[in-house]
Write a structure and sequence with these properties.
29% of the residues lie in helices and 24% in strands. By secondary structure, the chain is of the alpha/beta class. The protein has 3 domains: 81 residues, Alpha-Beta Plaits (2-Layer Sandwich), CATH 3.30.70; 227 residues, FAD/NAD(P)-binding domain, CATH 3.50.50.60; 190 residues, no CATH class.
Length: 530
C-alpha cells in the first residue's frame, strides 16, 4: 500500500455552504483534474475572517490516489505536495518485574498510564484527590457554598486541572514523533468528538472531558492497571535503581519507575520533593487577571455584524503585546461562551481559571490577560520562591474578596475607584464580590497589564471599556518549578521520572499528555530485552 498522499492546502468554502463535504470533494477533483480518487481526508480546518463579512472555512486535505506523483504532475496544482503521513510508533522494549507507579491523574499521568497499560505493564496510578464522579460533586459544592475541600477541587483529583477548563487541545509543540496525533486519537477512542482530529483549535469542553477520563480509566483497569485515590505522596526515598514512594496513610510502594506527574498546584509535594533531594530549579511563568466580555461583542469584533457565530460557534481570540518595560502581555486560555471559575486549592488563597462546556454557548467570553514574571521578581533565589510569589498574590486576592472571587470593572481598576453598582453576571462558577483590586498586581505588573489592555482595545474595540470585567487572580498559568531530568526522561535521583506540566515540561492538556506518552516510551525502552 502506498503511504504517500497528495496534500492540498488552502481550499476555501463559504461558511454558509450546507454541503461542505460535497463541495470539498468537487474542489479536490477540480484541482487534481481527475475523478480517480480513493479517499479524501481532512487534516485541518480553520476559519478565515480577514475579509469579513465574507468568512470561509479553510481546509488542508490528504488525497489518496493510485499514483500520487503522476497525478500531481498532470494536475499542475500549485498548492499541493507529495506527503508522507507521520505514523506514531511505539518503541521496542519490555515490561519490568516492578509495576510503574504514577503520581498524578492529570493528562500527563493518565496518558502515561494508558500507554503503559496497553503495553501490559499494569501501572499503579495514585492521586491525592478523588475519582472524577466524587470530585465533580465537591467542586460544585465549593462553587455554591465556598466550602473548599483541599484534596478534591479544581486542581486535585482524577483528570487534573484540565478537567475543569475549556478542554483546549491546541499546542505549539513540534510533533515530529506523532505523539500529538496519538493523543487526539486516544481522546476520540474514548468519546471525544472526531472533529478534534482536524480542527485548527480543537476543544472538548469540560462536560465531555470528564466522561473521556472515565473511559480511559476503565480501559486502563481492563488491562490490569490500578487506581488509588486519596493517596497523597509525603516523601520519596532513593535506593539507587529503585525508588520508594511513601504516602500519607503510611503505605509504601517500591518501583524502578516512579513517574511524578503531580501538576502545577501540588505545592506541598514540591516542598516534599525538594526536601527529599530531588533536583529542581525555579522558572519563569506569568500572572494576571481574568477578563470577561459579552460574547456578542467578541463575535462582532472577530466576525463582523453577521450571523457567523450561529453557524461556526462563538469566536475565540488570541492577543499579544510587548509593554514598554519589556514584559510580554498576552491572552491565556481563552474560553468563548465560558465561565470564570474559582480554582482555589488552599485555604485562605484564591485563584481563578476559565472553562467552557462543549457547546460554548454561554453569554460571556473570558481570557486570562497575563504578564510575564521571572525569578528576578520573586525576591529570593530559593528554588520555591516562585511558588511563594504565587501564594502571596493568592492570599491577597482572598482577603480582597473575603473568600469569594474579587471582581472589578476594568475602568475602576485602571482609575482606582470602586464600582458603585454590582450588576448581575452569569459568567462565574463560584461566588463573587465587587471590590477594589487596583493594587492586587505589583506595580510594574499592573502597569504592563493596563498598557496591554489599552493596546488590545485597538484590536478588539471595547476590550478596555466598561464592558470589561476583571476577576483575580490568574496565578496558575504554569508550574513555578522545573524538576530536572536527563535525555532519558529520568532524574538523577533514583528511579524518578518528572513528567508533564507540574514538572515544568508542558503547558496545557495536549502537551502534558504528549509528555506522558514520552515518559511511558522511556520506561518501556529501559527494559529492552537484550
Amino acid at each position: 500500500m502506498n503511504d504517500l498522499v497528495i496534500r492540498i492546502n488552502g481550499l476555501k468554502i463559504g461558511i454558509e455552504d450546507k454541503d461542505c463535504l460535497g463541495t470539498l470533494d468537487k474542489l479536490v477533483r477540480k484541482k487534481l483534474r481527475t475523478d480517480s480518487i480513493d479517499s479524501v481526508k481532512i487534516v485541518k480546518e480553520s476559519i478565515d475572517a480577514r475579509h469579513k463579512p465574507e468568512i470561509f472555512r479553510v481546509y488542508t486535505v490528504d488525497v489518496s490516489v493510485h499514483n500520487p506523483e503522476k497525478t500531481l504532475a498532470k494536475s499542475k496544482c500549485r498548492n499541493a505536495v507529495i506527503y508522507k503521513r507521520p505514523e506514531y510508533v511505539w518503541p521496542e522494549g519490555g515490561p519490568s518485574e516492578y509495576r510503574p507507579v504514577i503520581i498524578g491523574m492529570g493528562p500527563a499521568g493518565l496518558f502515561c498510564g494508558y500507554m503503559l497499560a496497553m503495553a501490559g505493564c499494569r501501572p499503579i496510578i495514585c492521586d491525592r484527590g478523588k475519582c472524577i464522579e466524587d470530585r465533580r460533586k465537591d467542586v460544585s459544592r465549593f462553587w455554591e457554598t465556598g466550602a473548599l475541600d483541599t484534596e478534591s477541587n479544581v486542581q486535585f483529583g482524577e483528570g487534573g486541572a484540565g478537567t475543569f477548563s475549556d478542554g483546549k487541545l491546541n499546542t505549539l509543540v513540534n510533533d515530529k514523533n506523532g505523539r500529538n496525533g496519538k493523543v487526539l486519537e486516544i481522546f476520540v477512542q474514548n468519546g471525544a468528538p472526531e472533529e478534534i482530529l482536524y480542527k485548527s483549535k480543537p476543544h472538548i469542553g469540560t462536560d465531555v472531558l470528564a466522561d473521556v477520563v472515565v473511559s480511559m480509566r476503565e480501559h486502563i483497569i481492563q488491562k490490569g492497571g490500578e487506581f488509588k485515590y486519596g493517596c497523597k505522596l509525603v516523601s520519596v526515598e532513593n535506593s539507587g535503581q529503585l525508588s520508594k514512594a511513601v504516602f500519607e496513610d503510611g503505605s509504601k510502594i517500591i518501583t524502578d519507575s516512579l513517574v511524578l506527574a503531580i501538576g502545577h498546584s501540588a505545592r506541598d509535594t514540591f516542598r516534599v520533593l525538594h526536601e527529599s533531594g530531588v533536583p529542581m530549579s525555579n522558572k519563569a511563568f506569568a500572572v494576571g487577571l481574568r477578563v470577561i466580555h459579552p460574547q456578542k461583542m467578541i463575535n462582532e469584533a472577530m466576525y463582523g455584524l453577521n450571523t457567523a457565530a450561529e453557524i461556526i460557534g462563538a469566536a475565540p481570540y488570541k492577543l499579544t503585546y510587548k509593554a514598554s518595560s519589556g514584559r510580554g502581555v498576552y491572552s491565556f486560555c481563552n474560553c468563548p461562551g465560558g465561565y470564570v471559575v474559582n480554582a482555589s486549592s488552599e485555604e485562605g488563597r484564591t485563584a481563578v481559571n476559565g472553562m467552557s462546556y462543549s457547546k460554548r454557548d454561554g453569554d460571556y467570553a473570558n481570557s486570562g490577560i497575563i504578564v510575564t514574571v521571572t525569578p528576578d521578581d520573586y525576591g529570593s533565589d530559593d528554588v520555591l520562591a516562585g511558588m511563594e510569589f504565587q501564594r502571596g498574590l493568592e492570599a491577597k486576592a482572598y482577603r480582597l474578596g473575603q473568600g469569594d472571587i474579587p471582581v472589578q470593572s476594568y475602568p475602576a481598576y485602571r482609575d482606582r475607584y470602586i464600582d458603585e453598582t454590582d450588576p448581575e453576571y452569569d459568567a462565574f462558577k463560584g461566588r463573587i464580590r465587587f471590590t477594589d483590586m487596583s493594587d492586587l498586581l505589583p506595580g510594574e505588573l499592573r502597569d504592563a497589564f493596563i498598557e496591554g489592555m489599552e493596546g488590545f482595545d485597538k484590536v478588539i474595540p471595547g476590550f478596555a471599556s466598561n464592558k470589561a470585567l476583571l476577576a483575580g487572580i490568574e496565578s496558575r498559568t504554569s508550574s513555578p518549578v522545573r524538576i530536572e531530568r536527563g535525555n532519558d526522561g529520568r532524574s538523577t535521583y533514583g528511579a524518578v521520572y518528572p513528567c508533564g506540566e507540574g514538572a515544568g515540561y508542558a503547558g496545557g492538556i495536549t502537551s502534558a499528555a504528549m509528555d506522558g506518552i514520552y515518559i511511558a516510551e522511556e520506561i518501556w525502552k529501559k527494559h529492552l530485552t537484550r
